[in-house]
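Researcher: Let's run the pair from yesterday's discussion. Sequence first, then tokens, for each.
Model: Starting with the first of the pair.
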Amino acid sequence: MLIYAAFTVLLILLEIEQSAQNVAIPPPSNLTITCQMAAAHWDYPDNNQVGFLVNVSHLDVNQQMEIPAHQRYANVSGFVWESLESALAVHSINVTARAPDGRLSDTLAVSFTYNDDRMANIKCKLEFPPVDVKAIEGGVAISFPNPLYYYPQVRRATRRNATRPDAISLHFFAKSHAGDVAIPCRNEERTCKGDVSLPTGDDKCVTVEGSAKSLAGRSVSFGPSPRTCAQTADRLAELVPGVVIAVVVALLVIVAVAIYRVRPRSEDAGAKEYPKCLHNVKSANNERYCNGSSLAEVDKRVMVVSLDEHSSGFSTEIESLQEEVQEEEKEILGAAEGVEEESNPVIDIWLDEYNPESNYDAQHVHMIVNMGDESAWGYAES
């Protein structure tokens, strides 16, 4: 009896363990495809132990991937865009959850394709490249990147597939209120361009879409693009810099003229009060000389003194200036009649047969003219 009871308990435990192993784990849910990247996404309850098996296939070609428990997506772009034939095929993707003890969930599957002519759960289209629209006379000018260069996966697939230059043909259309207009574009062109005529008064807006077709007539679709309108402010924006420059130049001219008209006239007015020989003053050895040819050019015989030498105590108004000059002449004439240099050292300074620092090669006397705010040295014939 004891042996029979123990055997019965063992059978019950085995049945319980077998039943536990047969309990299925929850399957993934909400399986979707991101067409831009050819990636599968799904949902699953938070469980750090459950991983996933992903199988993607087309025709008789398949690939299986193991996805860790924390990840809820699988990138299948490399498999789908391996060649143009692969991209234009119908792909089936299956996702199964797997527990650490090996238990598997039910499989969640979905089909998708980039081929307009094939049937699948999901019909994929690549987004159209950015479109630029500019207003021109009678319509708009359209330009956009060639999708064969804009999408690396498309470029890779078409290069592997293309054994002839015309293996792939591009077809693009601009849609507007006026109808559809074809935009020509060759495979080797990196930027596709075309003009669209629009009725006067119609809005300058278009939508662009297109496809790349193989020799077998299968095609990969692009777009449609968002409705894009010409920026009416573009032409105004082009004119603004020129207008600003013109305004600035005009303002500068006006300011210059105003400054010229209101500038002080003191120098011009003051110059009339001085002898003509002082109008043109040369600088030499920190002194200033009057270039008059004779004393007849001046109204009074005066002496010009440098401010550096007479900066203090020199009166701006000299009384009896003519008498002082006459006294200087007497001293000079006396020195010329035989007065020795020691008794009148002024002779070396004020009288000379030739002074290389002066503008005269005859005997001359120094002149000092007080010009108000400043003074200058000068010479005159004796």
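Model: Moving on to the second of the pair.
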Amino acid sequence: MSMFSIEPSNLSLSLALGLTLGLSGCQILPKQPHLPESVALTERVAALYQPEDSQNVGQSETAPTNNTDLVAAISEQNDIHPELSGYHPIVTGANAFASRSILTDMATRNIDAQYYIWHNDQAGQLLLRDLWKAAERGVIVRLLLDDFNNNAEFDQHLLRFASHPNIAVRIINPLVHRKLQTLNYVTGLPRINRRMHNKSMTFDKQITIIGGRNIGNEYLSNDQNSQFADLDVLLIGKVVADIDNSFASYWSSSLSFDIETLVTADENTTTDFLEGLDKLGPEDKSADSSDLTVYKAALEESTIDKDLINKRVPFRWTDMQFLSDDVGKLTKTVPSETNLVHQLRTLLGSPTKQLTIISSYFVPTKNGVNTLVQLAESGIDIKILTNSFDATDVTAVHSGYIQWRPILLRAGVKIYELKSTASEEKRENKLWKARSQSSTSLHAKTFAVDDYQVFIGSYNVDPRSANINTEMGVIINDDQLAKQLHGALSDDLLNQAYEVKISDNGKLQWHTMEDDKKVVYDSEPRVDISDHVWLTIMSWLPIDWLL
């Protein structure tokens, strides 16, 4: 049995779906998801990459046809490693923002972005502004968003954004009721429960960013209350074409609707896109860099543009495999064997030495626990880092994890739980960081198998990622990265996390460092009686398949 074997409860699924079956027929979506204008824009993108002697009149007149410095610099490296791909980790949220913003400024042909969440906050509006500026100079922008976290106000921003002739916005698996969104849970829960969790941003079909981060202040280091410790990876080389093809399949799907087919312009709001960016000040809407302190500093400190042009980004070149769920997973129209979890099982198999898992949401289920126990008892060194109760942003997920801790610990699995107080200053050499001013929550999704295989992407080790949502990621075959990830989970982590242990009498203990002293908690830190009761009740419910 593979370590990634996770199966949903068919009985629970049937009961949940049965509750809404009678009302699901009320949903009506537009018959034509793609408007002629956005279809033509997609054709223009294709024309940009035809050989120069075969380019047709449909190509954007303002988009350049010759290689830019960026394309030339990347192409030169690709030519040296024609069968390999290069990667460079993006650790901090500030660098994640700067990379996306600066690469948007450097792009000259097209930008394709695909995200589960794009918040209507400062980070979201700044990056929309950057994309708008790119479109103004002739770059074709395609933005594909999942609909689960959108709202009526953001709909209006996206509608104005898509009014640019070089921009198209599509919403995948959209909610029917745009303003009274709660109504969707009554009329269409079975359908809207399945979401596109993919996250990627690709520039000129040459360089891409994928990983765990969505677009929003808490993901990009500018939220004073909550920060996500996460990991992205900058990619060039052979793997970029696979990511581009995956985007194209989602973009062209009949599940992806042009924003104009779903939303009507509100007469009471401005029709000017830049004027409507209400989270930005006047100087932020047109200036080259934002007056917002964190983002301005990130842009000023980043040298990614110069480093890319001068080939100074320390890409490590290796063999990679790109993995992605088929878009048909959202409608259950493709075999389960095509799911990313099955691809992982095929490519990774079972570890023979080590397995290190870093997952913000860790819900292993009974089958997954049995597999991990078998591996541990056979001598495999298994270490897991997930969120503590105080750090998690989804309490229900924690309830789907805590019941398995004693079983895993008795088998010899090491478990670490990130503290909400984890700070960047004490994690300088780790693969995840967050600002110390606010509460920290782990959001990274990565694991290392044996001496050379590392997965980085959007996939959490939980049933929702395995069976319900669509996901994407890359397997990087690199012993250095694998060694770094395995080594990150050690006693050095105890300033930032608890190590959960089980005593001889079967009681759990949380070991950590506080003020340079070892501290042991005999009960779960920051969990009061009401929390404990609620978590216990939740753990009894047959909802693991939904988490």
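Researcher: Give me one sentence on the second I can quote.
Model: Confidence is low (pLDDT under 50) at residues 1-25, 54-66, 287-291, 424-437.
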